[in-house]
Amino acid sequence: MAEQVDVLICGCGSAGLCAAVWLSRCGISYKILERRDGPLENGQADGVQCRTVEIFESFGIAEDLLKEAYHVLEVAFWAAEGEGIKRTHYTADTEPGLSHQPHVILNQARINGMLIEEIQRVSGSAAIEYGCDVQSVEVDDIVNESSRVTTRAVSNGQQKVFQSKYVLACDGAHSAVRKSLGIAMVGDSTNAIWGVMDLHARTDFPDIRKKAIIHSRAGNLMIIPREGDSMVRFYIELGDAAVKDITLADLQERARRIFHPYSVEFMKTVWWSAYSIGQRLADNFAKAGRIFLTGDACHTHSPKAGQGMNVSLQDGYNIGWKLASVLRRQSSACILDTYVSERQKTAAQLIEFDRFFTKLFSSSYRQENGISSQDFKDQFVKAGRYTAGQGVRYEKSLLVSPSPTDEGLSQGVIVGMRFPSAQVVRFCDARPIQLVAALSADSRWHVVVFSGDILQQTVAAKLFKVAVELQEIINTFTPSGQEPNSVIQGVLVLASKRTKVEQNMIPDVFTPLTGKWKIKHLQKVFVDDESYNSGHGKAYQAYGIHPEGCLIVVRPDQCK
C-alpha cells in the first residue's frame, strides 16, 4: 500500500531541508527521501551569503551559525611581480550597509544539521528516510484538486510507493526525478579544470586567514579560510586536463608554484577534488503544477562564487511557504506558478553571472582582454551585491505588485526584492532591534506601517483610518477561532520621540489580544528613535520613507 503524505521531498540537501522547515512550522505533513545512508558528513559547499544568514535569522536559528562560522570581512588581492607575487589591494568582502548580517563560512553538513535540528525542535522529529533511492515519479494525467503524484523508490532493497499532493525534486545534479519527467539540462562545459582542497597548511604567506585571490605566472588560486583556527580551502586553476587524471600531488605542486616566493607545507588534507567548469539550466522547473525542481536538480555551475548552496536553499525558502499556504487553504494554487517565474529567472541570472565570474578568474581570458589587477578588483567589488545574495528582484506577478508611485514612498525599498533591515527601538521595552527580526518566517504576511510622528494630530488621525481598514482586511482573511494575527500581522514603525508616546495612542490592530488569556501582544510596535546603547538607527532615512509615511506589504519570505 502506498504511503500518503502532503509533500514528498526527494533529497535531503539545503533546498529540501529549507522547504521542510517551512512545512513543519506550518503543520504540513511531509517526508524526505534521501539516498545516502545517513546525514551529510562532509559537504562541499561552505560559503554562506548574507542573504542566507538573514534567512536563518528569520527561522530564529542564526545565532549558532554566526557563533560557529568563520566571518569573511576582508579580501586581499595578489598579483604577479617578477617570478613571485605581491599584494595589490584590500577591500571589504561585503559592501558596507548592504546587510546587517555578515558573509560567513561553515561546512554544508553543519548547515544542514542546523536545519534538521530546527525541524526536530518544531515537530519532535525529522521525517527523513535515509537509504531510499527514488526510481520514478508519475503525476495523474488529469490534474485537479484530488490529483496525486506517485513516487516509486527502493529502500534497503525493498520497493516502496508514495503518494503525495506535491513533490519537490531536491535530489541534485543527477536528479532521478528530473530524468523521470524527461526534463533536460541545457548548457555546456569547458575544458578548464580547477582543483579544490580543504587542508591545514603551514605557511609564511601573510594572508592565509583572509579570503585572498592570487594571480601569479603559475596560475590562479583563491583562499577561503574555514571555521576553526587553521583549516583553509584552496581553489586552484589547473588549466586544460582530464579530471580523471588529476591527483592530489598535482594540486599541491601547482599551489606551491603559485605561492612562490612564499612556502607552503600541506600538514593534512581533509578533502580534495577536481572538476570541469560547466553551467546548465533545466528547460522546465515544474510539471503539472505538482512537481517542482529545486537546487542542483535545475541549475548547476562552478563553485567559486559561493552561490550553489545559497541559491538552492533560497529555492526551498521560496517554494516552502507557498506550498504551506496552498495546503492550508490560505491561498490559491495559482501562487505556485510564481515559484517557476521567480526562481527560473533567478537561476538563469546565476548561470550568466557564473559564466562572467568564471572568465574573470581565467588567466587566458584576462591576458586576451588586457584585464589588469585593478580591473579585476573593480569587477570583483562590483559583483559583490550579487555574491552577497542581494541582487535578486522578482518581477510583477500575483505576489509582486509594483506601481509607478510605490517606490517614491519608500525609495530605499525596491518592490520585488527582499525587505532590507534597519535598527528601530521596540516601544514596549526600549530594546533596539533589527526590524526584519520582527518579520519571522512563520507563514504570516506582514503589513508594515510607517506612520510618521504620531504626536502630530493629522498623523494620528490618518493612522486611525489606516488601522480601521487594516483590521477589516485581517478579519476577512483570518479563519474563525484562530489568533487575530495568525495570517496577517500589523507592524507599526513610528517617527516620534519614544518617551513622549503613550500606549493608549497605539491603534489596537497593532497590539491584538492573543493567547489563552487574551493578553495584548506588544512586540510589533517600534519607534525610529535613539536607543540607550546602540545609537539611532535612522530607519526612515535608510528606507527613504516619504514624509507622508507609507505602508509596505511584506511576504512570508520577507520579499516586498
What report would you give on this structure?
Strands 1, 2, 8, 9, 10, 11, 17 and 18 form an eight-stranded mixed β-sheet that branches. Strands 6-5-13-14-15-12-16-19 form an eight-stranded mixed β-sheet, sandwiched between helices. The mean pLDDT is 92. Helix 1 packs parallel to helix 4, helix 1 (14-25) packs parallel to helix 7 (308-327) and helix 2 packs across helix 3. It is α+β, with helices and mostly antiparallel strands. The protein is globular, with a radius of gyration of 25 Å. It is built from 14 helices and 27 strands. Among the domains are: 3-66 and 107-186 and 279-361 and 369-376 and 384-388, FAD/NAD(P)-binding domain; 405-554, Glutaredoxin (3-Layer(aba) Sandwich).
The number of strands is 27
Q: Beta-sheet strand percentage?
A: 25-35%
Radius of gyration: 25 Å
**Alpha-carbon distance between the two ends:** 44 Å
Low-confidence blocks of residues: none
What would CATH call the class of the domain at 3-66 and 107-186 and 279-361 and 369-376 and 384-388?
Alpha Beta
Mean pLDDT: 92
Largest sheet: 8 strands, mixed
Annotated CATH topology of the domain at 3-66 and 107-186 and 279-361 and 369-376 and 384-388: FAD/NAD(P)-binding domain
Molecular shape? globular
Q: Find the structural class using helix and strand composition.
A: alpha+beta
**Discrete helix count:** 14
CATH superfamily of the domain at 3-66 and 107-186 and 279-361 and 369-376 and 384-388: FAD/NAD(P)-binding domain
Helix content: 25-40%
**CATH architecture label name of the domain at 3-66 and 107-186 and 279-361 and 369-376 and 384-388:** 3-Layer(bba) Sandwich
GO molecular function: FAD binding; oxidoreductase activity, acting on paired donors, with incorporation or reduction of molecular oxygen, NAD(P)H as one donor, and incorporation of one atom of oxygen
Keywords: FAD, Flavoprotein, Oxidoreductase
Organism: Hypocrea atroviridis (strain ATCC 20476 / IMI 206040) (Trichoderma atroviride)
Protein name: FAD-binding domain-containing protein
